[in-house]
Design goal:
Elements lengths: L5 E5 L2 E5 L17 E6 L14 E7 L5 E8 L3 E6 L3 E5 L5 E5 L5 H19 L3 E10 L2 E6 L6 H10 L3 E4 L2 E7 L2 E5 L4 E5 L3 H7 L18 E4 L3 E5 L7 E12 L7 E4 L3 H5 L10 H14 L3 E8 L4 H13 L3
Parallel strand pairs: 2-3, 3-8, 10-17, 17-19
Antiparallel strand pairs: 1-2, 4-5, 5-6, 6-7, 7-8, 9-10, 9-11, 9-12, 12-13, 13-17, 14-16, 15-16, 18-19
Helix pairs in contact: 2-6
């Protein structure tokens, strides 16, 4: 029997998999020509022949010391990303071949690391840059929301979608330099919503980059998976890359302004620290990161200061007013 290949585009990569990848199903992004071949191994095959001389470059752990995931690197073998709840993923040094071992885990578990860490890592290896940001499309331009984990980037992006914007990316934004401008690529057709805000996300629906506002289906219909931290919900993403126009850093504090306040954020350090990938530090990659940040600094870059109690509706309305005002 001849095997079939599933192709989905995310983070500027055309992911060609020998098996269906449920967390990439439904992607409408157009191919980019940057291929990433994905194969799925059985048993412990993904770890076979991994060199002992590999170097540990990332070791994420729970507060109690329990491992979340690790990344090992070897100049020739590439990168090994693994975690007890996420399986094992072996990525080639050029970011073009990936072998995954689910280790018996549910698709929603091992593919969570795939879309959250592995694919963005591959995008950087193939010459793109990745920011820790959620983003929407408004007036055919990309608007990105940056900030620390838990700042509300995804919730704000979904609120802007409820108000008519198109969904572009959740948590990771892949950027490509084209001459003197930056182009933002669609992410995956999935958003990770904190459990406290999941009910709202199911209710609002999201809009494609150029289509009419979608309505949510019956309760639970668009929920792909649930864990202790988040719900994964299906979203309708943008079909193609768009020019990046603005970046907003979310700064929510316990004693912030009652009404959202917008301030210039020209500090280069803020942009440099906004990268999603802190472990790949080759000279070529760092040079590319500096170039991307220099171009981003020419755009509208602002900090949004607000109180933690500020509602997402109020925050979304404030962002809309700000974007409509003359620059």
């Amino acid at each position: 029997m001849r095997s079939t290949t599933m192709t989905s585009t995310a983070f500027g990569l055309d992911v060609e998999s020998e098996l269906p990848l449920s967390l990439l199903a439904g992607s409408t992004a157009k191919p980019t020509g940057r291929a990433l071949g994905v194969s799925v191994a059985g048993s412990d095959a993904a770890k076979m022949q991994w060199p002992d001389a590999a170097r540990l470059i990332c070791d994420e752990r729970q507060p109690d010391g329990a491992p979340i995931y690790q990344i090992e690197a070897h100049p020739e073998a590439g990168y090994l990303m693994s975690g007890p709840e996420y399986g094992t993923h072996r990525l080639s040094a050029d970011g073009r071949l990936l072998r995954c071992d689910p280790e018996g885990l549910r698709d929603a578990d091992w593919q969570r690391l795939l879309i959250a860490q592995v694919l963005p890592f591959a995008a950087v290896l193939q010459g793109l840059e990745v920011f820790h940001a959620s983003a929407v499309v408004r007036d055919a331009r990309a608007i990105a929301f940056l900030g620390r984990s838990g700042a509300g980037k995804t919730t704000l992006a979904l609120e802007l979608c409820r108000r008519g914007a198109g969904f572009l990316a959740d948590d990771v934004l892949a950027l490509e330099r084209r001459g003197e401008r930056l182009v933002a690529h669609p992410g995956t057709p999935v958003a990770g919503v904190a459990r406290t805000g999941a009910q709202r996300a199911r209710a609002i629906g999201v809009q494609g980059a150029g289509g009419a506002h979608d309505t949510a289906g019956p309760p639970g219909e668009d929920v792909l998976a649930v864990n202790a931290r988040e719900r994964l919900v299906r979203v309708h993403g943008a079909p193609e890359p768009v020019a990046l126009a603005a970046l907003f850093f979310l700064d929510r504090t316990a004693h912030g302004p009652e009404s959202p306040r917008f301030e210039p954020a020209a500090d280069a350090q803020m942009l440099l620290s906004a990268t999603f990938n802190l472990v790949l530090a080759t000279p070529e990659r760092l040079r590319g990161l500096l170039e991307v940040c220099a171009l981003a600094a020419r755009l509208r870059v602002e900090r949004i200061a607000c109180d933690r109690a500020t509602s997402v509706s109020e925050l979304g309305a404030a962002v809309e007013r700000r974007l409509s005002a003359p620059t």
